[in-house]
Amino acid sequence: MHNTVKNLLDIDNNIQISLDRLNIKSSPKIIAVSKTFSIDKILPLIEHGHIDFGENKVQEASEKWTNIKKNNNHIKLHMIGKLQTNKVKNAVRIFDYIHSVDSAKLAKKIVDEQNKINKKMKVFLQINIGEEDQKSGIKGAETNQLVSYCKEIGLDLIGLMCIPPANVDPTKYFEEMNKLNKSFGFSELSMGMSSDYLIAAKHFATYVRVGSSIFGNRN
Questions:
Q1: What is the Cα–Cα distance from 121 to 50, expressed in whole angstroms?
Q2: Does this model's pTM top 0.90?
């Protein structure tokens, strides 16, 4: 068994054990964050049957995934990085999910581009849950307005996403995100990475974004 597959199975098992202790029945899908990793590292996961993969750059994703997705149309590719409006056209073509919508301008551009090719993107709004100046995302108090706008223009908004402040216990941020997500009745919640995916799972994340714990350290 390839080490990436073993790592993925170990992560899934850790999540199941953790949630069983809390009697939580639903477990999150694991997005294997494959940014910067070459296809030879990714192929064992594809051959194992893994579906969800994450990239943070449009050009890299297009180069790596265009041919693979033609031959594996069940694969779901997630845009997890900051998306600039001038990259939306190409992003809509290669990605299935966008986790990082943080403005009305970006939302409108996605709708315009997906309509041109008759495609329906699934979208998360990125919340700057720690209100950090250096991070993308909207403040929690601004969420209602952007949710309303996205629904008005026909964007398929399925949930919220966050990256909590680094090097602190993320529990309170995940609790806040879960409450905010539920207040809108969303079915999906994207939060948790290699360092905190177990905590995110306990707070009802439906997608966790795990890279280095699956693929190893990046160069």
A1: 20
A2: yes
* Closest to 26 (Cα-Cα) out of 14, 15, 35, 10: 15
Of 35-39, 79-83, 119-123, which range is least confident?
35-39
Query: Residue 209 pairs with which residues in a beta bridge?
Result: 31
Enter the tokens of residue 200.
């995110």
**Domain ranges within the chain, ordered by starting residue:** 3-14+27-215
Q: How many CB atoms lie within 10 A of CB 55?
A: 25
Measured at the CA of 35, the angle between CA 34 and CA 40, to 5 degrees, comes to: 55
**HEC readout, 85-121:** HHHHHHHHHHCCEEEEECCHHHHHHHHHHHHHCCCCC
What's the whole-number mean pLDDT along residues 56-82? 95
According to CATH, the topology of domain 3-14+27-215 is TIM Barrel (3.20.20)
DSSP assignment of 52-96: EEEES-HHHHHHHHHHHHHH-TT-EEEE-S---GGGHHHHHHH-S
- Half-sphere exposure of 120 toward its Cβ, with a 13 Å CA cutoff? 6
Distances (CA, A) of 71 to 46, 50, 68, 181: 11, 14, 5, 35
Question: How many CB atoms lie under 10 A from the CB of residue 195?
Answer: 14
Q: What is the mean pLDDT of residues 145-165?
A: 96
Contacts for 76 with CB less than 8 Å, ≥ 6 apart: 51, 52, 53, 96, 97
CA–CA distance, 105 with 85 (Å, rounded to integer): 8
